[in-house]
Write a structure and sequence with these properties.
9 helices; CMBL; AB_hydrolase_fold; 11 strands; Carboxymethylenebutenolidase homolog; cytoplasm; hydrolase; alpha/beta
Amino acid sequence: MPFCPQIQKNIYLQSIHRFLSIAQHCNSRAPSFTLTLHMGLASATTISSSSSSLLSSSLCPARRGFLLPCHHHFCFLSTFSKCNLNWKRSSGKKRGERVKCSAVGVGVEDEACELVNGVELSIGEGDDNIQAYLFKAVKNNNGAGVLLLSDIFGFQDSATRDFAYQVACHGYNVLVPDLFRGDPWEKGQPKPMFEQWLASQDLQRVANDIATSTKWMVDEFRAAGISKKLGIIGFCFGGGRVIDVLAADQGACFSTAVSFYGTRMDPTPASKIKVPVLFISGDDDPLCPIGVLSKFEKIIGNGSRVVIFKGRGHAFAHRPGSTEEDADAEQAFTLMRNWLHDGLLVNS
């Protein structure tokens, strides 16, 4: 079943209209131009070859607009299909612990989803240059930024894009960097090759790329006159990197975090983390043991929480494979959404 077919159609028509408007405008100005996409933090979208603004040409030497893929491989049955997440209070039977956070009375309509813009960026310079996607809410932009770290399948994977898009639907500006420099783990590769592939991904280089992405977002917000701190989300491999990022950051740039079933997490630097972390996982996930998460919760403190979904395995929240997993994925998304709302908007 296609993902939000009417939304896809409307986005396509909007893009054509936008392209024609840009072309007409450029013909009246100059043969070369730079499309400057505002993150919804300042004024409307502008076209400029020299003016300094968000996503300026000096920071983003190459970019191209893109439409969300029409081949979405899953569709959250009720919530995500309409991009309308309604708060549901669970009986707590499926979770090891309930998270107390504000119930956000936000009903994001289809029209709001139509006004999520996406752009592919090239950020950083020289050896620090990396590719990234930026999803930004237009209609209901709340002025908050979120860095999303992907799983091993990379930033171009449809599941990661889908999730980032849904977060943007709720008012956020979401940056998804390419953590693997164009070399993600490909589906279908022989499993014995995985450790060899993983060893080829230098963790220090990954950390530097995340730092580049963080600096880019901070600079863009500062240019817009906004001093809000960022949120960070990670899945699997990215969920493990969330710990490293927060330990190095020590509250300088990030004010809250969500780690979905993080893998290969080292508890050693956890004591340096200064912000609350929401850990979400399943009790049938050998890659993210519950005992490890409980240890992190105690070490980090600061209001951190662990939420365990019974009977769920790895990646259920952003790659649900059944009707039952769909329901828990919606629940997990709602928990994350309210956690971000409290950390980035209420308590910022």
